[in-house]
Amino acid sequence: MKKLGLIYNPVSGHALFKGKLDPIIDMFQKHGIVLCPYRTRGGGQDNLGYFLREMRPDGVLAAGGDGTVHAVVNAMLAADMDIPLGILGSGTSNDFATHLGIEDWEAYIERIAAGEARRVDLGLLEGTGQYFINVVSAGVLTGIAHEVKPTYKNALGKLAYYLKGLGEIPRLRSFSVRITADNVSYDTDIFLFVIANSPVVAGMKQIGQKIAIDDGMLDLLAVKKTGLPQFMSVAADLFAGKSVTERENILHIRAKSFEIQTDEELHSDIDGEYGPMLPLRVRTLPLALSVYC
User: Fold this and answer.
1) What is the pTM of this model?
2) Orientation angle between helical segments 105-113 and 17-30, nearest 10 degrees
3) What three-state secondary structure class fits 268?
4) Which residues does residue 4 pair with via DSSP β-bridges, in sequence order?
5) What residues are annotated to the active site?
6) From 156, 191, 213, 284, which residue has the greatest number of CB atoms within 10 Å?
């Protein structure tokens, strides 16, 4: 029988995945696939790389939110395992799974059983050894996921993020930044930036046109310093699922590598998890990961 590792976060989203575990195991067994579950604990107690090396699976499933997917991808690369990744999005935010159109799990399991996969790009934070599958960001609103209590996220879902974000808007503060993209530099004042691999970020389904996960490029979008009405207009378009790359107060750059420098003390956010302090050096790794889809 083919075997897959199933790494699941028992508290992500509404903490409902645990109740779906037995039916999912049954669906895979009907396709001749056995699942080997690994329950994450967080707090530095997990050793996903050791689990994968010892198990030697034919593929890996990540069940949780974007942070769980991030942890699994980094464990796979640390263990030097080039095997397909499946994503069962069960977190508050499931941006990469949303972009891939993974919604009907029963139909998805059939695709996995058939071995249907594609190669996608990854991002690398140079000097840290950290990879990201979807986004790295910094600035106002980008750390909201860490500030919302888990009980609120489980009760309200993405609405908890939006409500927290509305509370942060009166405290908007810009910062000066130098962005170097493929050796071309831009000096400007911004409120925030995201470097995205897919167009789905923070539950917003289309931050920009022609952003692709297999083009060997990353897309930087920065919201330039502007008045509150203009900022709110951009936010409204994003929440409505509209592209903002053509907006006058948006700096949009597509490149293979970026360096972000600032004199401010700012933490980054990487796939919804705490990232390193700025400055950052980021580059794309073309088609570095195989994903069931």
Assistant:
1) 0.85
2) 40
3) strand
4) 35, 59
5) 273
6) 213
E strand spans, the chain:
2-8, 33-39, 59-64, 85-89, 117-125, 130-132, 135-139, 175-181, 184-196, 218-224, 250-255, 257-261, 267-270, 273-277, 280-292
Give pLDDT tens digits for 150-164. Answer: 543 444 344 444 444
Contact in structure between 37 and 93 (CB atoms under 8 Å): no
CA distance 217 to 215: 5
Rounded (10°) angle between helices 66-78 and 48-55: 60
DSSP label of 201: B
pLDDT of residue 186: 96
Cβ neighbours of residue 59 closer than 8 Å, sequence gap 6 or more: 2, 4, 5, 83, 84, 85, 86, 112, 292
User: How far, in Å, are 14, 54, 91, 117 from residue 19 at the CA level?
Assistant: 11, 27, 14, 27
Q: What is the pLDDT of residues 193-210, one digit of tens each?
A: 999 999 888 766 667 778
What residue ranges of the chain have pLDDT lower than 50? Answer: 144-146, 148-149, 151-165
Are 258 and 186 in contact by the 8 Å Cβ rule? The answer is: no
Q: Which two tokens stand for residue 138?
A: 């910094």
Per DSSP, the residues of 215-248 read SS-EEEEEEES--HHHHHHHHHHHHTT---TTST
Q: How far is CA 15 from CA 49, 91, 106, in A?
A: 24, 8, 20
In one-letter notation, the amino acid at residue 108 is Y
Which two structure tokens, joined as six digits, stand for 44? Answer: 């530095």
- Torsional sign, CA 155, 161, 164, 166: negative
Query: Residue 201 and residue 173: Cα distance in Å, rounded?
Result: 21
